[in-house]
Amino acid sequence: MKKFIFPIGFVIGLCVSLLSACTTFTPIDSFESADRYLQENLLPNIQVDSQLVSDSSSYSVVIPPLVDSTPNPDNFPLYGAKPDKNPNTVYIEIYSSAEKANGERTDERWLVDVAEKFNQQRQTLPTGEVIQVGIRNIPSGLAAQILTAKKGQPAGYTPATKMWLELLKSEGLSLKEIAPALVPNQAIFAIQAQAYKEIAEGGEVTFDRITDAILSGKIQVGYSNPYIGSSALNFLHSLLWRAAGHSQDGKPLTIAELESPNVNSVFSIFQKQIALTTPTYLDLKQIWIREPKKFQAIVMAYQSYVKLKKQPGFEKLAYVPFGVPENSPLVGFDWNSAAQTLALQKFATFATSAPMQQLAKEQGYENTQYLQSSKFPPIPSGEVLKAVQAFWKQRKDGGRTVYMEMIVDTSGSMEEHNRLKAVQEALRFASKHINQGNQIGLITFSDRPVRRIALAPFNELEQKRLFAAIEQLQPDGGTGLYDGLAVGLADLMAKRKVDPNGRFYALLLTDGERTHGLELNQIQDVIKHSGVRVYPIAYGQVNQQELEAIAAIREGNVYQGTPERVQVLLKDLFQTNL
Q1: Which of helix, strand or coil describes residue 111?
Q2: Tell me, what CATH number does 97's domain have?
Q3: Do 110 and 210 lie in a common domain?
Q4: How many Cβ atoms are within 10 Å of 1's Cβ, its own excluded?
């Protein structure tokens, strides 16, 4: 047999090549390996520009008074009848909480069904005018903000809970009760079966027992923004009311008690056990369905829980009720005509009739034992609820610093439909919802990424720096989407090395598909092990499948944005996370 003898140089070269190949394809399975791969394999191939705003440029910026960007009610879906100028018709529009007014979902459209059935009957007033009803699907908290800002004048408003009515009263709105309750519902903890079983070993599973389990680190929980969601606000008040000792004496929570050491201590410990806070309950539910082991319990409404139990893997889900009822009161306003008030009353009578209540039961509404017990916390005043919301905003980070990199598409297509201008305005408004001390950075991308603001503790100077950077943005070039994300991840991961207990987020806003640079498969393992939660915002004709894949890697959701709604979206994301 003939032997082949290779020169020693060839052998050494081959070994070096093999070692190099092994190094290149080392699995990314930890933060350290993800950081090393990012630094050694990805960033060297990305050309990054720097247009950081200097201190001197920031000092001269004047920040104008910022009014909250309250949404336009016309941007929310309207079901049932549409406005009718027929003089023989009395049209009433009702703002309704989302869990009963989503015409696109069979299990969340009870009030839409009621309105359609009512409109078909063509009921009349004594004057002979025909009543027609439109249902505007707006989350309870957003509807309250619209009404407070006087951006809409509906005939009626039916939030999930009376708490929102108290907030409106504290803002000086005059309300006329039409019906104290349209449909029975309540706030609950939905709990995975194993966690419920473990808590039950010590006795009856109650709100207090679950709260104690969370405080002791036995279970983690998710809930949504209490400025928007009814069950989230209900839960927040119940937690603070209990921490103030009122589950024993039944007295109402006071503003002064929010400053007590015990209330602050309980809330701080509680927030450290929070797995996730999302802008809306629907975001939270979708994440839980996708990642059932992400947390053991979430805050939600009972009616939604009934439907969630039908999802695979959630059949044995348990629940524990708490708080004040969420029975959907209906109110009118002093701007209504006498005909509109009477029309609302006739509609309420129809909605609370036996056939409509049976329809509600079929959609998950039930007059449970808890609702029949009448053992609820007292309804807090609007002033107390405003203080509770502010308390949450100031302390929700549980003593940990939040780091958020805003990674914004400035490609040429962002000029269309004033997309970039809308984002610029939205970032200005959203900046007022950033807690002092949390850190934000700004990176834009088109043909290549541009660092514009380095991550730094937010204060008045940093807000001015943000305004200056926003003013400089111009749409141009292609879409190096993942190059921008890689640079943002690198900055956040550098902060994580210094502060491993921080919270790390990347807000990725794009209006198109990647045109060049890195591809998703080159960076997805880095995302997975980065410790950074990425919030993709789809702002146009995007690759929805890729954005959903990014969100799923770190237990997130894709948020849908438009120039009309981006202000509300960014405000909600900043309010919840910053």
Answers
A1: helix
A2: 3.40.190.10
A3: no
A4: 2
